[in-house]
Every structure is written in structure tokens, then in C-alpha cells.
Amino acid sequence: MTRRVVITGVGAITPLGIGAKPLIERWSAGECGIADGFGRCLDFDPLDFLSKKEARRSDRFAQMAIAAAEEAIGQSFGTDGELPYEAHRIGCVVGTGIGGLPSLEENQRKLIERGEKAVSPLGVPLMMGNAAAAAVSMRHDLHGHCYGVVSACAAGAHALGDASRIIRAGDADAVLTGGTEAAISGVAVAAFGAMEATSPTGISRPFDARRDGFVMGEGAGILVLEEKEAAQARGAAILGELLGYGATTDGYHLTAPQPEGTEAARAISLAIADAGLTTVDVDYVNAHGTSTPLNDRSETVALKAALGERAADIPVSSTKSAIGHLLGAAGAVEAIATVEALRRREAPPTVGWEEPEEGLDLDYVPGAAKPIENGDGPLVAISNSFGFGGHNAVLCLAA
Amino acid sequence: MPTDVTTDNVEKVIFDGLVELGTERDQLSREASLEDLDIDSLDLVELAQIVEDEFGVELRGDDVKDVKTVGEVIDLVVSKAG
Known about the structure:
The structure holds two protein chains of two kinds.
Chain A: E1 5-14, E2 17-18, H1 20-28, H2 52-56, H3 60-76, E3 90-95, H4 101-114, H5 123-127, H6 131-140, E4 146-149, H7 155-168, E5 174-181, H8 186-194, E6 219-227, H9 228-233, E7 240-249, H10 262-274, E8 284-286, H11 293-307, H12 310-313, E9 316-317, H13 320-323, H14 330-344, E10 346-347, E11 370-371, E12 380-387, E13 391-398
Parallel strand pairs in A: 3-4, 3-5, 8-9, 8-12
Antiparallel strand pairs in A: 1-2, 1-6, 1-7, 5-6, 7-13, 10-11, 12-13
Chain B: H1 7-20, H2 41-55, H3 61-64, H4 70-81
């Protein structure tokens, strides 16, 4: 008997606001949360969610995950603190690209300026890449599988994929999963700039001929995944289903995607096959769409290779046009945006897309959101995430 | 120059330090237990750094492992300085 995985709660902290609602509503309206070249979460105050002591004991990337988890758990489990399953049957798998980089930088500064004795005993627990997963599970007393996933900009999608596998394998009945990132700080900004990955104009316009790099963003997305029958038995509201997952690796270059998108295409095909579907079943693509010259071209090639003629018939849009690139949080935030878009039966636009480039000829949803056409039944989407290192992680979602 | 290690000075620095670490000031007293204030080993290491910066008195993990109240921390710092 195959165990299926449904989504029963979502939570997001993004440059479009606090919550999953402003993310989908403002993106669908064509709004953009990028300002001064960064996608910052200016409305996020950790003290709205944490005591002063709790806030001191978590880096911003973990604080955002805690806040997003609060929303997702509230929606799925309720706000009374009761868990619907035994605590050891609930896991917590949270991705991040970098971890607590600002905390690392702060302690490095203390080390250089004042010596070893000035370095905080919280230095390691603040910066470790698993800190968000640990903090969320500790806060909600979850005792199942718990770890961080680190695969650069694919981490959020890998986390969801792993979480779904844990549930399918029978090791958990529910998993809190997602991604989080808050690395808009000295070293990361300088390093991404040095490799000319980020946009010198500070504009995120995926698939547009004028695109010149990604815009760094921050935020978190957390979902509650549950085994479908168990969720139905307890009467949980089901937002969508994580039908399939495909993961491959380019094995090509440290940062550049393989130009023909061969392995990215394979990940897309694997996700669709894992869902038990074929390309004609796919109604919408939430693209990785970083706004870098290389990604958007190779991703378009990969979509055509994997989806064939279907690629030209369905909307393809990039959440990064509205919030920038949330790195290790991107895949999770975009999975939430995808499910919500399917629920609204509307593909949000690739904000700012105006100028086509030869070969980049899919329907990138310019200008305004458009209906996703396919009768009245559930809609299916794929959500792509690709990371430095050649990581490809693709989710197949339905709602 | 380190601050003079008087009981009053140490109490002020430790009270301020604990507030900085997230303890509510109105819960603080010499009699308050560290456990009730949710002050754990990581807090004590941070507090030791504050004390050393201020008074030049070094506290190690072993020094504070049996300390139960805020007052005992204060007395320990004063006695170590002596």
C-alpha cells in the first residue's frame, strides 16, 4: 500500500511580508518586495515570535524558520500545542544554503579584534546549518527524524523531497519541512558579487533579455507534510499533495549549470514519473528562474527537453521576480507559492519580464497573472530548484 | 582599568548582564535560583565573559558548576578577586 504525502500547513516569511498569504496575494498582483538591490524581510521582528532569550540563541535564519513553522503548525495542528501524532512520529527537516553566516562573521570579528576569549559560547550553535531544524523541533517537542539539508539553492526542495520520502517509507506520519536563509551579510554579498552571480543593477527579471544576475533575498518557508490517510482520518484540511520528487546532479561545474540542462531535465522527468504522471498532466511550472544569464537559458532548454511540446502550452513563472533569490529557502517558499497558485488556479506573473531573448520562448507570464487552464479537477505543477554544485531537485505538486 | 571588585559593583554588573542575556529585571534578586530564571551553562559562560571584561576575574566552568543562586555567583566573583 503506497503511502501518499499531503500538505496541511504552510508558513512563510518573505520580502512580501509575514505569512503565506501576502506572498501569494502580492506576487499574484505583480508586486515586488525587492528594494535597494536586496529582497529583505523588513517586516520581520524576531521578538514578535520569540522571547529576548530565545532570539539571542538563534541566528536570523533560524528565527525566520521558527516564525514560519509557527504559522504552518497553527494552520495544520492548531494553536493549542497538542500534536496529532506521537512526538517520535513527527520529524523536522529544514534546508539552508549557508546557515548562520552573520553570527560567524560577528564572532570572527571578535576573535580578530579581542582574541579567543571574546568569542561567544553560542558561536557554534548559532551558525550551524542544522540550527533551524533543531530549534523548530525543540520548540514543538518533535522527536522524529531531524536534521538540516545543505545543497545551496536546492536545499529547500531537497528538504521537502527528503521529508516526503521519510513519510512514504513509514518512518514518520508528519514532517515539518522547508528552507530558511538570512545571509545578506558582508562575506556572502561580497563573494556572490565577486563571482558576478548577483545583479549589478539590483533588478531580478528572470528570462528577460536584460537579466544580469540574481538579487539576494532572505526568508523562510515551512510546510507540514503528512501521510494522506492519517491526515484525512484526523480531519485535517488538505491544501495540496506532494506527488513526486526527482533529484539529480550535473557533475559538470562548481557553479555553472550544464548548458544543455540534461540532468535538470532528468530531474523534472523523474519527478513527473514519481508522481505516476506524464508531461501532458503538468499544468504549470514554477521555475527556478534566477535571473542569471546561464540559469534561465539552461532551464528553458531543460524544460523543453523534459516536457516536449507541453512546454510551449503551459505558463512558466519565477517567484524570484517578486522576492529575489532566497537561496536555501527558495525551494520551500516556491513550493508554498506553487501550491497556493494552484489553489487559486492562477499562474502569478514573472514580474518585470518585457524583452524576449532568442531561444527563451516559453510563456513566462508577462505583465499579470493568468488562469491555469485544465477543467475543474486538481491542477499539477512542477517546481524546479537548482543549486551551485550542480544540484537539481524538482517537486511535483498538486492542488 | 578593571572596575573595583566590590559586592555592589559585582551585583550591578551581574544583574545588568543577566538582563542583557534575556532575564526579566523584576525577577532578579540575590536569592533567585538560576534554575527558576532558566539560566543554563551557556548563559553562565557568557556571564563569565562579561565579568572577566569588567573585573579581570576569570571564571571557568568548574567554578560555577555547583552555584545555585544569583547571590552565590556574585559572592564567587568577589571571593575569586580576593
